[in-house]
Amino acid sequence: MRTKQFKAESKKLLDMMINSIYTNKEIFLRELISNASDAVDKLYFRSLTDDSIGLNRADYCIRLSTDVDNRLLTISDNGIGMTAEELENNLGTIAKSGSLDFKNNNEKNEEIDVIGQFGVGFYSAFMVADKVTVISRAFGEETANRWESKGAEGYTIAPCEKESVGTDIILHIKADTEEEKYGEFLDAYRLSSLVKKYSDYIRYPVKMFFTTRKKVEGSEDEYEDAVEDRTLNSMIPLWKKNKSEITDEEYNQFYKDKFYDYENPLKVIHTKTEGQATYNSLLYIPAHAPFDYYSKDFEKGLALYSKGVLITEKCADLLPDYFSFVKGLVDSEDLSLNISRETLQHDYQLRLIAKTVEKKIKSELTKMLNNDRETYEKFFEAFGTQLKFGVYSEYGRHKDAVADLLLFKSSFEDKFVTVEEYISRMPEDQKAIYYAAGETVDKINMLPQADAVKAKGYELLYFTDYVDEFAIRMLREVDGKEFVNICAENADFGTDEEKETVKAKNEACKDMLDFMAESLDDDVTAVRFTENLGTHPVCLVSEGGLSSEMERVLNAMPGAAGVKASLVLEINANHAIADKLTDLFETDRDTLDKYAKLLNAQARLIGGMSIENPAQFSSLICELML
Ligand code: ADP
Questions:
Q1: Could you tell me if the CB of 78 is within 6 A of ligand 1?
Q2: Which domains, ranges and CATH numbers included, belong to the chain?
Q3: Out of 33, 74, 228, 416, which could bridge 407 as a Cys pair, Cβ 3.0 to 4.6 Å?
Q4: What is the pLDDT of residues 311-356, one digit of tens each?
């Protein structure tokens, strides 16, 4: 019989399994039982519309059997089975990912990641078996096929007999070694505890015959072997059990299996709700954003079950956009089984459930924010941007639902703070909540205005996420305190007296300032003196609603219309340059014109903007040097 080769990627995965240093070998059983359960599901669904199948719900099962002498473990199911072609396609290639990245997979961590992320499924059998035989008869076929492989060398497929539809996976368990006692996977009690541990909520019975010695009835000392058919799993879905019966490991394992994550979730929320809406929910807050989370491909939603039967894998209506990162399921008694996708949207019960689910998520996040800041910060690093979108989207319609969940980086202790915390420690003379937007905290700290705010003893919020400023514009104020961009013209931290002085100076030098503004043409709307700059010579502030950071973000968007923030060039009234400029206005306007251009370019660089005419800037500098 011709031996066929595995596809290249499958071969690599197989090699990895065969030579596995992965310690958790026992998971192979979970993988095979889960495949069997899927196959049974498929046939069961078929049977709902096809009477010829002739099985009742109670007839479907998965069976484990062992032949200790020959070191065989068999996992059988009476599911849909596979044709020769399906055996070839399903077991000869990796089903899930055509693009497994095997770089550096020699390292142990990498290997675990691969197993976790992709769920190696069937191939995991090779962690414990040196030969695997699959005998399968597909639904609708008279004959069966035998697929066999000893691992990396390849596999064979040939027709064979099988009495009924379904699949037997026969594992030839490896010989024991010093380190590994593979024989444990032939022990009925060990197998039964593995089923309990990993596959308890499988919806079909996982059965096994147990042989026990029993006293012969009526006799004193006569014993006989009694064979008992036991069901090893409770079949109760995890979410229907009581919280006290579920271990953290079970919760986490369920999450990882069902939602294809390799990392434990940050938080598990398991509820049983009764009242207007009666349902169980099992919700998870992931520890990291899926790779496609912030892309169009991401689909939010919770799985929806009615009385334990799956209606839809992803019901989007159960989650608001700002909580779209939540994974999980809802199982309700109140929904009809034949509810369709379209009617879901209009279903009153469902809307009620969605509302309670949202409230629950909010309250759990608030609890985490108040009691477990470290975890919350991890959560916020992953999903904070989404919450900020929540404030911003639909013109701020949902801002109240999310605003108090926001965190911002702050100049106090270099930590994340809530707006509430910020307000609670504002000095009495501080009028507004001050923030600055920029690419990084370091760059913001270099702003002249940042020095001025900090010198006053005020706390500064760093907006380094591009959505920050847009979100805050929607909030406008919290507890009567306005948000003020320190680089905007309405930011002023001076005393009334200082303001008077600078106002007088601006009036006195009006002609000179207008001359400079004229030199700068469209770049600025005005030039003026300020008291706010400490030791820095110049800065740019924005006028009106649009800041220069918003200009940058908006112009970076696809199809941007090229918006322009209107900017004012501010000159430090207490800096030596101020006198120099007033002198030049009297003596040498040509040079003043050049200085205006130089100062504006400097201010743009300091503010993290690019300069529009670098060549001109460079030649002006050279003129100064020569
Ligand atoms: P996955 O289950 O993640 O798709 P596997 O490698 O475990 O990947 O299995 C590959 C495919 O083989 C499955 O998708 C399924 O189509 C088929 N398969 C595996 N086991 C069985 C089984 N017991 N009965 C029917 N089909 C099976």
A1: no
A2: 3-231 (3.30.565.10), 238-377 (3.30.230.80), 407-485 (3.40.50.11260), 496-625 (1.20.120.790)
A3: 416
A4: 778 899 999 999 999 999 999 877 765 565 556 666 788 889 999 9
